[in-house]
């Protein structure tokens, strides 16, 4: 079963093509009882001493996924807080450093995210954490801007509401997946992937049109902006559902522990998407 998240869809460890746990990993036909031949001179001082078997690669566990995802989200949070605290006062018009860091985070996160998404081998911790840091810069910057523009004095900040909503969304999707034993069908998966490509195409088209002053309002605060944000939130939530399914498939297949960083990237990307579009929805409703 494939996911609409490219990092899981492209990676053989999660798309069912790796053969882990099914005789395809670390089971080569070596002589001498199944172990690789020793290097020249191995054990020379001790003739007849038994050879030591190579240490097997430990299979990924759910704890590995939770820990690596927690580290990734922690980096997002630290970078976001640092951006919020370390930049000027938006209400006073001191936005130069804020805009700069937000732009760096947006474009840096896009570039590193694309590299991670289309990389077919396991992701390194450095690459995943770099993505998390860039996303933290962007999330912290855009959150501070939205908070200054749309939060109402005496009411909970829309940033706090978005964070709380993201936590409930992630927990709710996981609970629904486990307790209701949701099965992801191939037809549903294909439909989500097709719709995701359409959503991405609309976003790119809107970006190009906006540069020439002919945007359709998908990034605005009107009705079209609200519809587009709701669609983005829906894709993020469904993406989480499919990603949980892909992680479970990886655990069942016995993929190596190092693939936990790949899982952490996919889940972090989906949760960031949920938070961003939920923040957009709250901002648009508050503006109305």
Automatic annotation (TrEMBL):
The chain crosses the membrane at residues 65-85, 97-116, 128-146, 158-180, 192-212, 224-247, 259-278. InterPro entries: BaxI_1-like (IPR010539). This is Membrane protein. It comes from Nocardioides phosphati. The keyword Membrane applies. It comes from the Bacteria. Pfam families: BaxI_1 (PF12811). Residues 29-48 are annotated as: Disordered. Keywords: Membrane, Transmembrane, Transmembrane helix.
């Amino acid at each position: 079963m494939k996911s609409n998240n490219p990092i899981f869809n492209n990676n053989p460890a999660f798309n069912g093509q790796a053969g882990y746990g099914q005789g395809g990993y670390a089971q080569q036909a070596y002589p001498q009882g199944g172990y690789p031949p020793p290097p020249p001179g191995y054990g020379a001082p001790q003739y007849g001493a038994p050879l030591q078997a190579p240490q097997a690669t430990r299979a990924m566990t759910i704890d590995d996924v939770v820990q690596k995802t927690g580290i990734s989200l922690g980096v997002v949070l630290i970078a976001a807080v640092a951006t919020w605290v370390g930049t000027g006062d938006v209400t006073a018009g001191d936005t130069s450093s804020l805009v700069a860091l937000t732009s760096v985070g947006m474009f840096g996160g896009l570039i590193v995210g694309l590299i991670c998404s289309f990389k077919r081998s396991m992701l390194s911790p450095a690459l995943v954490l770099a993505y998390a840091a860039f996303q933290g810069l962007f999330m912290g910057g855009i959150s501070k801007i939205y908070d200054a523009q749309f939060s109402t004095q005496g009411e909970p900040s829309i940033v706090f509401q978005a964070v709380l909503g993201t936590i409930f969304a992630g927990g709710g999707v996981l609970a629904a997946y486990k307790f209701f034993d949701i099965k992801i069908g191939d037809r549903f998966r294909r439909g989500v992937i097709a719709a995701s490509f359409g959503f991405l195409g609309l976003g790119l088209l809107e970006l190009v049109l906006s540069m020439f002053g002919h945007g359709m309002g998908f990034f605005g605060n009107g009705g079209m902006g609200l519809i587009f944000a709701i669609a983005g939130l829906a894709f993020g939530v469904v993406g989480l559902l499919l990603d949980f399914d892909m992680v479970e498939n990886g655990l069942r297949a016995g993929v190596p522990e190092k693939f936990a960083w790949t899982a952490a990237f996919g889940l972090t990307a989906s949760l960031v998407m949920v938070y961003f579009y939920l923040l957009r929805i709250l901002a648009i409703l508050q503006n109305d």
